[in-house]
Amino acid sequence: MKDVAAAAGVSLGTVSNVLNRPERVSPKTRAKVEAAMAALGFVRNESARQLRAGHSSVLAYVMLDGRNPFFTDVAAGMEDAAAADDLSLFVCNSANLAERETAYLRRLEQQRVQGVLITPVDPDSPALAELARRGTPVVIVDRKRPGTDHCSVAVDDVRGGELAARHLLDQGHTRIGFVGGPLTLGQVRDRREGALRALLAAGLGPDHLVDLATPQLTVEDGSNAGQRLAGLPSATRPTAAFCANDLLALGLLRSCAALGISVPADLAIVGYDDIDFAAAATVPLTSVRQPRHRLGRTAAELLIQETSDPGHVHRQVTYLPELVVRASTLRTK
């Protein structure tokens, strides 16, 4: 900064103002200082600035699964909110591994990020409360955590499961496969619970929901589930499937094409999330849409409020999903 000041013929304080309070410097002087910075190749030492301030101008999002476009869409909403407040967003992928999540949280705290947005492996993890207690605000995304110690933004997944199963029931299906897992994931449990509620409301018992459990929520797992479904006896084989996310649904659709199973004539399929690939599938997928971008933007806005407002009150925001009906469930007459 001293070199820049000498080159521009201004005081060190003026250079500091150009970097931190540019509105205090006349356009002519600011242009002269910026030209000196460019000529000297000056780059602000952000680490030193963070050390003085005690925190950075960075928010961080620890997403659950970087392979799933749902989470990148959520991150895009966060990034828009961060940019509107002149903040940056760092994105980390825990890959659904608790130890990786813990390592990221430790590093982010050491870097003094302004706050952490997280879709946690375990929403009840005490590490989240500890992080907040030590001064790093935390907002839970796409999950719910008991109590009101954190802000959270989520979607009513029980309602989403009901929408999916009720649509299939309305199409005349009385035996529905549920493709999803593991049930340790709250969203999977809630979506399955919603499907069961729809069946019970229609006078059908839980045995009308056929579980096709998956170890993860990937295209490959959906494809494997399709092979298992095709191997079931015709008397007990579902005529429709509700998948816990769109990646599973796309894998199931791929498996059906390979096995000669017609969709939706032989098997109707409903996904969840309504990622862009759902509408672009060979047979466009009916899906339960979550407001992905809005989910991320709201979460980031709550985090920014918490970091800037001493009177901030934690909020738990829950959005309602909607069903988007496409060719994968509509039989042509």
Q: Could you characterize what this model shows?
A:
By secondary structure, this protein is α/β, with parallel strands linked by helices. It is 46% helix and 17% strand. The chain contains 13 helices and 12 strands. The chain has helices spanning 2-8, 12-20, 27-40, 46-53, 69-84, 98-110, 126-133, 157-170, 186-201, 219-230, 246-259, 276-280, 292-308; strands at residues 58-63, 88-93, 115-118, 138-141, 151-155, 176-180, 209-213, 240-243, 268-273, 286-289, 316-319, 322-324. The protein has a 6-stranded parallel beta sheet, sandwiched between helices. Strand 8 (240-243), helix 11 and strand 9 (268-273) form a beta-alpha-beta unit. The radius of gyration is 25 Å and the shape is elongated. 43% of the residues are buried. The model has no long low-confidence stretch (mean pLDDT 93).
Keywords:
alpha/beta, 17% strand, 13 helices
In the sheet with the most strands, the strands line up as: 2-1-3-4-5-11
Q: Unreliable runs, pLDDT <50, ≥5 residues? A: none
Query: How many strand segments?
Result: 12
Rg (CA only): 25 Å
Helix amount, in percent?
40-55%
| Helix/strand/pairing category | alpha/beta
Layout of secondary structure:
Blueprint: H1 2-8, H2 12-20, H3 27-40, H4 46-53, E1 58-63, H5 69-84, E2 88-93, H6 98-110, E3 115-118, H7 126-133, E4 138-141, E5 151-155, H8 157-170, E6 176-180, H9 186-201, E7 209-213, H10 219-230, E8 240-243, H11 246-259, E9 268-273, H12 276-280, E10 286-289, H13 292-308, E11 316-319, E12 322-324
Parallel strand pairs: 1-2, 1-3, 3-4, 4-5, 5-11, 6-7, 6-8, 8-9, 9-10
Antiparallel strand pairs: 10-12
Helix pairs in contact: 1-3, 5-13, 8-9, 10-11
